[in-house]
Design goal:
alpha/beta; homodimer
């Protein structure tokens, strides 16, 4: 099967080989070195400011999202939540669950956040945003958001789960207090690990805030991370894959080189399907994904046919968009041959009258 | 390296092969079938009562421990916590964190819980126990505990993280409300997944109790599990390995047949090192592990020499026991040849005057 979802995605053979062994024991100086290298490379690739830290949680991206709401924010905060889809909605739910005071800023499906939507919110203390709202493919205007946050001394917390590597991201330049990502997006290894990078301002908050969950405690993760360890048994194999992947990114010229590859795939895909009866959903698409609305047929059926007749996984949408939108991911180990199999399959469906 | 820790442990080549591929996409009917089979086989192997359910969290065992304290217990409960080592202590910390009213019953390091220690606690509503306290190797007298709980209508919540498969466990017979385990113990696949089995009485409580954490919400896991899915992207590869492993256990005659293999390895190891200067720590050892106190030398140095000079991982203890106790695990894919390499290494260390 070819996998063009937005995660889990296809891994490079060298990365797969890392998992082709029994998981090694991890309470060793050797594994600690791996973890310290993971932290250092992640901070480098995120352009994190001096004295930032990075920890690895054995969880999905939602675990990392919740860890920010629980550990970095507190009940004194007034939080702005940008909600333009399923993942923005998840931040809303997390703020409700943890009784954070918040204002929801809604964006229409596929639409960019506009500056005027933030007017009047200058007195807030923190802002939560899914840099790339993965459900719609919208890449938010991070420069505008960052400028607003800096001007008003608002703590900027960035979910870059599907944006990391795929889209331009400079933590120091944005002045972001925290950035999170996950193992199964452009890192393109197994799912099971989420990554939380914290600038000094966020580290101070984690230190001061009361712990509300042991498993998702960033305080404990940071403390153990100093010696290259985790408080609890982590997904060791996935962390070893992350290490191999980060080192290979470094070798090919860093995260910017890797981004160009993804951007090129996205561009080629979008250009190749312009004549098919799809509407592009996102006003400002991320390189990671193309969200499409099929004009004549249901999205679910397209996903089913791609899977059953072309051995290709596309990415379905959930909820009320399930039959209106499907997505094609551009992250992971995608060869030119693979990409053209997908493009050919969609054109073939067109010829067969299935679109 | 040979791995004789208590997790992660060595995996069978057929299980490793499952991870030797890109992780497949999981929001598919095919993966749902895998998950439903995982649930059904886990309940079968645990001898869970009728209408029990089982969910899989992408977390370490601690995530599952915390999920019980958060989702099954509430602030009306009066909880008995059996604390005979690091993992009992973790339940104590979790109850403190989540403001559960509890009474701690301490067991000396390596000692069995005695019935008289429960006297006077009959008015409690729940009991938390690490069936096998992995840090000391003590397997608690579960029949005695279960009888006490049944007699006094006390909800029995069992951490069987390192006991599942290795030691006799019949959820229905014990009348246990919940049993948890993890992927990297006797299931012998990658770490990253914990398993939570809930009898109807626990399911009712999960339904009624207020949600306090989204990521570790058993309510959401149960709801999504009905359709063979998880609320958030799980460690898909590890779940596929669990599926392969559970089916292979079924094929060789079920969990009882697998237990015999582990018990035989434990027995052979213990008999083979009787003449070495070690004290056996546990009064009533689990089949999963042998905890040893080296009489003449430090435990840390034994672990280091085994690793650096014999390419064998033994399992260090943490905290104040770090230099007094080390452990040898008997779970995972251990061949007879492997076992004898370990036994020979320890005898060789003895001859070299290192013990």
């Amino acid at each position: 099967m070819l996998n063009f979802t937005v995660g889990p995605v296809m891994s490079h053979p060298d990365i797969i080989e890392v998992a082709n062994h029994s998981t090694p024991y991890f309470r060793t100086p050797e594994f600690s070195e791996v973890m310290k290298e993971n932290e250092q490379l992640m901070l480098e690739f995120l352009h994190a400011p001096e004295r930032s830290r990075c920890v690895f949680l054995t969880s999905s991206g939602t675990g990392a999202m919740e860890s920010l709401v629980m550990n970095v924010l507190n009940d004194q905060d007034q939080v702005i939540v940008i909600n333009g889809g399923s993942f923005g909605h998840r931040f809303v739910e997390l703020c409700e669950l943890h009784k954070r005071k918040f204002t929801e800023v809604k964006c229409e499906f596929g639409k960019q956040l506009r500056q005027e939507q933030l007017a009047g919110l200058e007195n807030h203390t923190a802002l939560l945003v899914n840099m790339h709202e993965t459900s719609t493919g919208v890449l938010y205007d991070m420069s505008m958001i960052a400028e607003f946050c800096k001007k008003n001394c608002i703590l900027l917390l960035v979910d870059a789960i599907s944006a990391f590597i795929a889209d331009e991201l400079d933590m120091a330049e944005l002045g972001a207090a925290a950035v999170i990502t996950g193992s199964q997006k452009a890192l393109a290894v197994q799912p099971g690990i989420s990554v939380v990078a914290l600038a000094p301002v966020a580290l101070e908050r984690v230190e001061k805030n009361e712990e509300v969950c042991m498993y998702l405690s960033l305080k404990q993760a940071l403390l153990n991370g100093v010696r290259g360890q985790t408080p609890f048994t982590p997904a060791v194999t996935t962390l070893l894959q992350i290490n191999a992947r980060l080192k290979s990114i470094k070798k090919v010229g860093g995260v910017e080189a890797e981004r160009k590859v993804i951007a090129k795939i996205a561009e080629e895909f979008r250009n190749s399907i312009k004549d098919l009866p799809f509407e592009f959903i996102s006003e400002t698409p991320s390189n990671a994904v193309t969200a499409l609305h099929p004009i004549n047929v249901g999205a679910k059926e397209i996903i089913r046919i791609l899977k059953d007749e072309y051995q290709i996984w596309g990415c379905p949408n959930g909820g009320e968009m399930a039959d209106l939108v499907f997505r094609i991911g551009h992250i992971g180990y995608i060869t030119n041959v693979d990409l053209h199999k997908l493009i050919d399959a969609l054109h073939d469906m067109g010829k067969r009258g299935l679109l």
